[in-house]
Amino acid sequence: MLNIEHFFILGILLFSIGIVGMVSRRNIFIMYMSIELMLNAVNLILVALSHHYADLNGQVMAMMIIAIAAAEASIFLALFVMLFKNARSLDANFFDLLKQEKHND
Amino acid sequence: MLSNIIFLILAGFALSSSAFMIYAKQPINAALAFIVTLLSIAGLFALLGGGFLFLVQIIIYAGAVITLILFIIMFLNIKEENLPVEPYKGRWIIAMSLLVAPFSAILISTVHKMEFKALHLQEFGSIKDIGIEIFTQWVLPFEMISILLLIALIGVVILAKKEKENA
User: Fold this and answer.
1) How far from each other are the two terminal CA atoms of chain A, in whole angstroms?
2) pLDDT per position as a tens digit, A14-70
3) In this complex, which of B27, B60, B159 lies closest to A30 when CB atoms are compared?
4) Domain containing A42: what range?
5) Lower Cβ count inside 10 Å, N or C end of chain A?
6) For A19, nearest residue in chain B (alpha carbons)
């Protein structure tokens, strides 16, 4: 029989995959999509809990997270366009402007 | 019984496509794999009785966010030399997986210890109920999210404008 535990385990696994992708990749697009994956894993757990307690608050919270993720997506992608125009690369190692400026002092 | 099979299929799709996503070299392949992940998570929402969230997930995530990502990837016209050189990508991923695995194992064993009743999957949370919930208890967060979206809009316009001044 399907249990809420299964949804929890799936959410934990998806979150872990998101962390692994976030830390081990240097392509900024894939890092961004890993963040979105983590948000989705949390959403899945929220909706499962909402169903378990027959309480709609979890679903509304998941909707708020989706709205915030949409706002985040627009800013991330505008930043990516700017960074790509400056550095002509998608490598996260190139984007160390703050570190570089501290070195020059 | 049918819901078990649906859950297993959707979970398998979500896990395998997200694993492919973090391994893909080209960002476009990662984005296409991510669509599969998002759609299977939308299916899981529907399985949990969240019909409205299923729609929101498909419209906003698979419809808007991923389309925006694909549009930007195609707009940037990424060549092979623009991609980061990651000779130790596989080793990094394996090492990070080994590092993260104990924490997930601890979380999963904690979840195991909790006592949960079996789910009786049924439709609950119609659009009307969610609307009543949002506009009674969640009015303030709802309005704050509209302000957040406005701030994001202004921020994006300012980012784009600065780039023009520099050029």
Assistant:
1) 64
2) 999 999 999 999 899 999 999 999 999 999 999 999 888 888 889 999 999 999 999
3) B27
4) 4-104
5) C
6) B100
Which one of A26, A27, A55, A89 makes the best mutation probe of the B interface by having the most chain B beta carbons within 10 Å?
A: A27
Amino acid at site B127 = I
B18 to chain A, any CB pair closer than 8 A? The answer is yes
Domain count, chain A: 1
| Sign of the CA dihedral with B25 first, then B26, B27, and B33 last | negative
Mean pLDDT computed over every residue of chain B: 88
The per-residue pLDDT for range B95-147, each reduced to its tens digit, is 999 999 999 999 999 988 887 776 666 667 678 888 898 999 999 999 999 99
Q: Touching check for B145 and chain A: CB below 8 Å?
A: yes
CB contact under 8 A, A90 and B61: no
Contacts 24+ apart (CB under 8 A), B102-107: B103/A16, B104/A12, B104/A13, B104/A15, B104/A16, B107/A12
Distance CA B14, CA B80 (A): 28
Tell me, yes or no, if B85 comes closer than 8 A to chain A by beta carbon: yes
Chain centroid to Cα B29, Å, comes to 16
Token pair recorded at residue B32: 């296409």
Interface of A with B in 21-60 (CB under 8 A): 21, 23-27, 29-30, 32-34, 36-37, 40, 43-44, 47-48, 50-52, 54, 56-57, 59-60
